[in-house]
Description:
Layout: H1 2-26, H2 34-52, H3 55-64, H4 68-129, H5 140-154
Amino acid sequence: MAKQIKKKIIHKAKIKRNFYKTLEKEGTNLETPTFYREIFEGNNNSFDHDTKIGKNQKAKDMDDIPSPNYLNDKCEKEISLDLKRKDIKVLQERERIQREKLAEKEEIQLHRQKKKAYYVERNRMKKRLMKCNSKGQPYMKSRIDQILSKIKEKY
């Protein structure tokens, strides 16, 4: 908010300076354009609000303001409470993330073990099915046993 006000004041000052420079260059006393007139009038109104407030009212307002030490103590307490709350939240968030990562790692490890066991069994069955007799003919007994075991598993 303060930056915006400062920016507006600087902008208005630049416009005024440029306007007066152009007037000096032209050397004529022309009527000021409405755009510049609005800026000049608006600027005056922004500074007049302090003078409209009476001195008594300012004094009353000053009495309502608590001492700076009180404000500092209160702010420090609020800040320390806020920091503690934030620290607790941050710690809880970190713990939650760690638990999630651990669970994910365990899940991945379990998946890898299942996959490895599957391939070991597959290779064992493949070797059993690929056995051949001395003439190069496959053993049909192992193939029939494999087919029967698959049927039993399904039903």
